[in-house]
Amino acid sequence: MNLYPVILSGGAGSRLWPLSRESLPKQFLKMLSERTLFQETILRLNGIESVQPPLVIANHEHRFLIAEQLRDIDVRPQALLLEPAGRNTAPAVAAAAYHLLQHDEDALMLVLPADHHLPDVAPFHAAVRRAVAAAERGFLVTFGVVPRWPESGYGYIQRGDALDALPDCYRIASFVEKPEPEIAAKYIAAGDYFWNSGMFLFGARQFRDELERLRPQLAAGCRRAVQGAVRDLDFLRLEPAAFAQCEATSVDYAIMEPTAAGAIVMADFRWSDLGSWESLWEAAPKDSAGNFAGGDVYLDDVRDSYVVSTQRMVAAIGIGHLVVVETPDAVLVCDRDQVQRVRQMVEHLKSQRRAEHAQHRTLYRPWGHFESIDAGPRFRVKRITVNPGRKLSLQLHHHRAEHWVVVTGTAKITRGDETIVLSENQSTYIPVGVPHRLENPGKIPLQIIEVQSGAYLEEDDIVRLEDAYNRA
Fold first, then answer.
1. CA–CA distance, 245 with 237 (Å, rounded to integer)
2. Strand extents, DSSP E, 9-139
3. Contacts of 138 (CB under 8 A, 6+ apart)
4. Contact 365, 464 (CB under 8 A)
5. CB of 140 closer than 8 Å to CB of 205
6. Are the C-beta atoms of 276 and 262 separated by less than 8 Å?
7. Coil, strand, or helix at residue 184?
8. Exposed, middle or buried, 363 (CB in 10 Å: 0-12/13-18/19+)?
9. Domain CATH for 383
10. Domain that holds residue 308
């Protein structure tokens, strides 16, 4: 049987603010290595028997970011399914199952969140092999991680009877929500409770059959969403109306808890869902004083802390047990015992309609990215980077003019009826209402400084006349 990795990449990661935000959540950041968590999830699949290219399920807002990160590691996916709205894991996995069954009735699905940290590849592969053996016998398998401490931030699974001829594989006795610390300690002492990793392995057909038996309305909505999916460049957009009718629920609630075919495979490897700054500090390499320092950081008499700078120098003196994270537009200072309250702070930003909860100053586009450098009444300054061979849409603005100065690379510019080519230190002016386009015909990134001026300078003052990426 072929094994298809199904990568769930739709999370927002708000508990790791200010690094992780809606426009660039944690799975697409380089948190612990030179690869992003999403890329690490894909790459650790190398070497698994019968593994096929991954099927990625994503928020449509992240589609070009995902495509670029896959290209960076030279991976061509099985498919890129785009959710019109987040509906939790059960509809996402169901859509993947119905899609795979169109091509392979015997498909096995290895369901993996894109934002987990698993540094030990060999024991992960061994656990997958055990899960494949159980799935081939019709079981719906979840991975239960052997707990290393009484963590109250994870759910737990209690194992039941051992399955015949399947080593380290058991029936599921019960699922437990995130317990209080003293209860979690009792689970650890009992020896038959495991962290609920949120990873699964099962046959697509078996999952579909259980879904249609247990949640027939959810199954029907997901089936219609896949049948009505529309191809958009390299992406497959699930039919919005049908998917919106799907109940927002998890695989655990919808399938794994009520099914009689559930099984748990013991996974004895280091694992973290990196769900908070505390868990990231646990996973990160630390110095002899228990500190992780990233970026331009100076530490003096600091202990057991996580200190990161992304742009400015950060100096920390005589502190301990803190999280300090600097970004161009926000700084977080938090006791490590209080990191769960970061989510409340993000909700406050949302209630105040502040952009910092959702966006960084640097925003990514299919052609590259731009960073807001400065802004004031009637002006805004951006640094724009266009990747080699890419181009922006042919567009115009009703309320602003733009001045462009080339810093590095070569710019091919359409301005009204004329086309010009500019190189380093050359500039041009785009009047209000004039159609224009910026292209990079060269082999190195093109970087320009853009100065906008006018009465209204927001991004919705873009009228796209033609776009290579099918954006509205």
1. 16
2. 55-59, 79-83, 108-113
3. 203, 206, 261
4. no
5. no
6. no
7. helix
8. middle
9. 2.60.120.10
10. 277-347
Per-residue pLDDT of the chain (472 residues; tens, 9 = 90+): 999 999 999 888 899 999 999 999 999 999 999 999 999 999 999 999 999 999 999 999 999 999 999 999 999 999 999 999 999 999 999 999 999 999 999 999 999 999 999 999 999 999 999 999 999 999 999 999 999 999 888 999 999 999 999 999 999 999 999 999 999 999 999 999 999 999 999 999 999 999 999 999 999 999 999 999 999 999 999 999 999 999 999 999 999 999 999 999 999 999 999 999 999 999 999 999 999 999 999 999 999 999 999 999 999 999 999 999 999 999 999 999 999 999 999 999 999 999 999 999 999 999 999 999 999 999 999 999 999 999 999 999 999 999 999 999 999 999 999 999 999 999 999 999 999 999 999 999 999 999 999 999 998 999 999 999 988 7
Residue type for 52, please? Q
> At 311, is the secondary structure helix, strand, or coil?
coil
Final residue of a structural domain among 347, 372, 399: 347
Rounded Cα distance between 264 and 199, Å, is 10
Which tens digit of pLDDT belongs to each residue from 162-172?
A: 999 999 999 99
Helix (H, G, I), strand (E, B) or coil at 216: helix
In terms of domains, do 156 and 10 share one? yes
Burial 175-184 (b: 16+ CB within 10 A, else e): bbeebeeeeb
Whole-angstrom Cα distance, residue 362 to residue 21? 11
Q: Are residues 333 and 399 in the same domain?
A: no
CA angle 86, 459, 464 (to 5 degrees): 90
The model's pTM is 0.93
Q: Do 146 and 110 share a structural domain? A: yes
Q: Any idea how long the chain is? A: 472
Residue type, position 250, single letter? S
Cα separation, 42 vs 349, whole angstroms:
33
> In b/e form, how buried is each residue of 317-327, taking b as 16+ CB within 10 angstroms?
eebeebbbbbb
* Separation CA 108–CA 101 (nearest Å): 10
18 upstream amide cis, omega within 30 of 0: yes
Task: Give the Cα separation of 393 and 386 in Å (integer).
Answer: 12
* Strand ranges inside 262-396, DSSP E: 262-267, 292-294, 297-300, 306-309, 314-317, 322-327, 330-335, 362-365, 368-376, 379-386, 394-396
Nearest residue to 36 (alpha-carbon basis) of 27, 23, 45, 44: 27
* Structural domain total, the chain: 3
**Structure tokens belonging to residue 415:** 């301005």
DSSP state of 91: H
HSE-up of residue 304 (Cα within 13 Å, Cβ side): 7
